[in-house]
What we know:
With about 675 residues, the protein is α/β, with parallel strands linked by helices.
Amino acid sequence: MSTRTSALDAVVFGVDVQSGDVRGDAPSYAVVAFDGEHVDRDVVSLRKLRRLIDRERPAMVATDNVYELAADKDALVHLLRDLPSETKLVQVTGAERPEPLSRVASRHGVPYGKKPMKEAEAAARLAAANVGHEVSAFTNTSTVKVSRGRSTGKGGWSEDRFTRRIHGNVQGKAREVEDTLREAGLDYEVDRTEKYGGLANAVFTVEARPDEIPVSRLRRGDVRVEIERERRDGIEFRPLAKRRDRVLVGIDPGTTTAVAVVGLGGEVLDVLSTRTADTAEVIEWIVERGRPIVVAADVTPMPETVEKIRRSFDAAAWTPERDLPIDSKQHRTREIGYDNDHERDAMAAALFAFDHHEDQFERIARKVPATMDRGEVIARVVSGGESVEAVVDDLTEDEATEEETEEHAPRELTPEEKRIKHLESRIDRLESHVENLRETVSTKNDKIAEYERELSEARREERREARERRAVTRLERDNERLKRELSEEREATEALEEKLERLKTLWKLDHSNFADVAEGRRDLVPVKVVEQFTKGAIEAADGSFGLAEGDVVFLRDASGAGRSTAERLAATNPRVVLRKGGLSDAADEVLFEHEIPVGPAEDVSIQEIDELAIAPESEVEAVIADWEERAEERRRQQKGAMVDRLISEHRAGYDDPSRADGTGGSG
């Protein structure tokens, strides 16, 4: 059996007993898969039917009697628990007191036959049309339980760590589940049971069905995660479609369309006025509020738009003998509020139609039994033109001759079945007792383990205090030693500070030029000293005090540098390079290409202070100006050399006979 793309969002299964009985041996079922257009049929066993539902995951499994699929209420609850989360179990014949399937099919115009396959198809088609009641044993609340996946054992030294690990893993998984629920925006409550090292379990009560909870069931290692829907007190039957009562509708068409809905008692249920809604939207609005038996207008003849809406519902028409006067409409709607004249006209049309049919409605109501749908009878009499007696007889007709008597309640069990049910109940009680005993044993084991942990903790505490006493003694000795060393270091530091002050005083006396610095001269520039013209020395200087664009750089030893070293220095784009010693031709060429001034350090009065140095701005500018003059001369020489080379090459070309006459070698 396969599903197909169709007019329905999903497939609907219709099911009926083909042979056997669910309370006996090996029942078989007629199964029809209906997708809105196509029908697939098959006969399967109960086990195969369950597998088919799990595989195809239909939107609904429809039947005329749910007890054809389950022997009793307990079995029905078990079946509902095992259904896929997106699959509903539907009883198309009603709730606790169902009708014969033939009557329901006839009422809704669905083909019906007595054979199981025909009944299964009728059930599928009815469910696809939202006829019937969903059978539910669970609420929309679920329980997510995070607990231990294994026993903590009987205690002992090694099992102390084992127990702590299990409880820690349960706590970690519980936090993970809580984070997931919070991120999903689900409402929940949590009940935690704390144990040594973490949690014994955590129970989350979540306001959602299991398929809406982004947590998976788990049973692995130390942790177990179980998800269960919360049981109802009994079995609940919920209608698939909301009941829509019979109503009278008044319509005032035009640029602004107004619609009024009036109940069979003459009360105004709802009013609409709109400039934007088309006819289809107006019809949809009416459908949501009831099933019209009369559609009325306040003018004669009925406008075409109103007639179109009336035909769509196959309802009776009402129009006045002549157009309703404004004062009559105002008087009839005087006790009802409205926003505009269009709503007033629509309400007046519906209310005058009710006035016209009111006596007829009362006569029909007196003839209809209390247990029968009065609206259904009125609709068939007013819209269909049938007599009250014919409709009542049709709805109460005994169809026992047309179909087999259908059971909708569990039959009486045989003695053997009662014995089996009694034994199963006894087994359940014994299993529950065993589970309670296991829980008691687990609790006692936890208590023993807790006592052993306390003993172990006391021993550890005693050993820890002994270690602390030894550590305190050792630290006191170390403290005395460090105090002595600190005192010695302080004395040495004071001696060095005194020596430094004396050296600074002597240095200032020996270097009279330093007085310029002391007096705060502003024509000085900082000079950054690089010990050697090597990559390593440049990197060291850059890491120590930084080399930036516009710096004055002093190469204490400029010899030996190659192109790559010169490129590294040129990358910092210094203002000028002061050198001691001669530059290599390669380094000089690189610095010249990057237009970086280079001059001898002897031309500048560099004053060094520790790792820093300063120089007069005027002398630095003089070095730069001298370099620029030399650079300009160097450029002129290079241009002259280039011109001479070009002239020489040009002359050489004319002196070559083979090039002069445009011929090449022998050939």
